[in-house]
Design the sequence.
């Protein structure tokens, strides 16, 4: 039976160097004016329709409305054909002071070192390398339920997987606030622990 002989081997990522990540993270904060009090929510990917960057901006607006007392900072790392429209949407929502647009970055480690939570809001994915890189640095991930992402993310362990529908923005925002509260209160100490 040939099926029993098939084994899936996922892409690997280098072991995280937490000391270098911390040092490079400090440089990132200075360069992009991210304060130590900011709660950084990151989007890392091509700024194209299949990655749903406008959904990320909608999530940001929802978070600011739902929890204005929190110093949210939304970082979008990447470039693509919709960059100009992304800037316009951010301006329409009057969120310019909440967003950092880095463009393409060769090494995402400094950003992830400052990230409270990574959002993957794509319409289509396989198994994104950026999710593995985030988990490698103990950064929890909220993702749409697409591709094989559930092979990496276990709800309440290292993130949450959310259905992609008309309520996605509100559900993402609620999950982010919940994650923030549970980490602060220590109720989910292992939330950002990668799957062994």
Sequence:
């Amino acid at each position: 039976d040939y099926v029993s002989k098939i084994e899936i081997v996922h892409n690997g990522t280098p072991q995280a160097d937490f000391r270098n990540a911390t040092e490079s993270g400090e440089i990132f904060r200075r360069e992009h004016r991210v304060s130590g009090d900011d709660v950084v929510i990151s989007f890392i990917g091509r700024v194209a329709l299949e990655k749903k960057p406008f959904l990320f901006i909608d999530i940001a607006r929802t978070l600011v409305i739902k929890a204005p007392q929190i110093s949210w900072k939304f970082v979008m790392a990447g470039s693509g054909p919709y960059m100009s429209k992304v800037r316009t949407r951010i301006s329409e929502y009057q969120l310019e002071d909440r967003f950092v647009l880095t463009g393409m970055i060769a090494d995402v480690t400094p950003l992830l070192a400052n990230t409270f939570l990574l959002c993957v809001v794509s319409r289509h994915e396989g198994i994104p390398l950026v999710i593995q890189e985030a988990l490698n640095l103990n950064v929890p991930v909220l993702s749409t339920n697409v591709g094989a992402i559930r092979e990496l993310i276990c709800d309440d362990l290292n993130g949450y997987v959310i259905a992609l529908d008309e309520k996605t923005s509100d559900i993402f925002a609620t999950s982010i606030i919940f994650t923030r509260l549970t980490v602060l209160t220590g109720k989910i100490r292992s939330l950002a622990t990668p799957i062994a």
